[in-house]
Amino acid sequence: MTTTNRLARRSAALLLALGLGSPLLAGAETLRFGGNFTDDHSSSRAMERFRDALAERTDGDLTAQLFPNMQLGGAGENVDQVASGAIAGTWIGISYLSRTVPELEALSLPFAFASREEAFELIDGEIGELLDAELADKGFTALGYMELGFRHVTNNERPLETLDDFQDLKLRLQPNQTHLDTFRAIGANPVSMDINEVYGALQQGVLDGQENPYSIISTKRLDEVQAHLSDTGHFYDFIVVAANRDTFNRLSADDQQAVREAMAEAVAWQRQTAAEEDEAARQALIERGMQFTPIGDETRAALREASQGVVDDLRDKIGAEIVDRVLEELAS
């Protein structure tokens, strides 16, 4: 597809998202959601389930229209669109909201989560309620948290077997200061970049590598431009479904309940599906030619020790209370 065609397609999608591209059914209301995940990612498929369940619960009086795969731009653009009310909501990696709500970085403590079940217990409890309130203060309503998953480093330079192997690697990370500080602490050279630029930057050698869950590495076909795969699992990452607060609050109480119930159903399905697909994605990457090198216990301990100063810095940045509450929850 040429650049002109891509721009034309995106412009047409944006017109639709703004309600300018087609007439709406009389009496019906449509909530438009933009996302940067590919159509086949479990989160996009979960949003389709949300769309169908919402229409069923409201007899079609309230519907959802979905624009996955960066049809409305990258994740940062989607956040801006929701904040302005141009679209009703988005489903994105939670880091893309951390500049607006710094407290979300408390979920990004390096090497903090032992399992996805531990992560879900945290976000579904009091910590999640606290972060929901912070999002609301900034104009967003959190509708649910899906799995993005444990993040793992890939690169084109060498297998990652020791702490020294991370030295000076130019790695793409999400726009999250804690993520960036963690990789600086272990000796890498991290660069913040939107996901829609990553494939080209890797292909052109602008970057040595990147880090993502296996599902994203696979669906974004990053194995085509990366040689080495690891299992660093340095952060566990969430996908937040965030709506414009005022748009959501304008809905009737019944419609708000329908949205939340439909989303809860979609989130439950996605979490289970993402867990099932995680190992399958790793295996697919290996079969497609990536060299997989697992991180040994000694190296993992060295990475954890090298990055612990990031936790103290985060206490200073967003407040010790939220950071210590997360650590206490994880230790209990």
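That was protein one. Protein two is written in the same sequence-then-structure order:
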Amino acid sequence: MPSEGKYNIKAVSKMLGIQAGTLRAWERRYSIVKPNRNEAGHRLYTDEQVYILKWLVSKVNQGFTISQAVDVAQNGELYKEVAPFSIENTDRAAEMGNLILEALLSFQEKKANDLLSQAFSMYNLEKVIIDILGTLLVRVGHLWEEQKITVAHEHFTSSFLRSKIGQLIQWLPSDPYLPKVIAACGVDEEHELGLLMFTLFLRRKGFEVIYLGHGIPKRDFEVVMKEVEPKMVFFSCTIAENSKKTLEWANSLKKEFPNTAIGVGGAAINHISSETQEKYKSFLIGNTKLEWDDWIAQKLKNQ
């Protein structure tokens, strides 16, 4: 579900303390924020777009020109600035997550969106994605596994969270000099959390990621590979019984696309046998960011 705008230009102008004409000029000249339009043609800004504009205004207030601020943002600095760590900040983020979860489990989507807007005013984008939304998605999965919530609650809440995480990832800039990457769930996988988190990691590194998610037939996936010609492909597995099937498919794809590096990761990989690990070790990307970095660096070096 695409992100819908909810703030008109007058409201955003008041929030930011700048003229509406300035917002129009920034949109026209720099294209860093392109608000949606309603049926009447009026601009409607999303929470994410307001966050970006707030960041730009803060840079201008620090002495940057708007063009300099945009350049800094497009180089990725917009998403690298982390609020100073403190117990208070951590507790507030946890409390915000609790409130959002409570709203979602009560099917109060508007309240959850309003709380998310507050989170954006308090924290940077990556903290909201990982520490609040990502954490909530894991908690919902555990609640469902423990039969503390119904399938309906799990589906509604997970759908909201996955949608928001996916939308936010799209705001991360990509480096045109880095190769294209395809990210997808493994064979018969439906859980996307691990894939979303790894996609966030790749986008933070500057890679352009074609995110396919789950449910793509093998034949269709191979068609996409031929069209995109990615340098790397990543599969994520959460369910242990799907890991071997995914590794076998990765091996088959490697034979058909020998110049493409193919990696497999996710929680399920921790449960495969040592024999399977040895057989498919070249496909295993590891579990930590350091291991991911090493795997990617090695594959790019060999290409």
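The first strand starts at residue 7 and ends at 8. Keep this in mind for the problem set.
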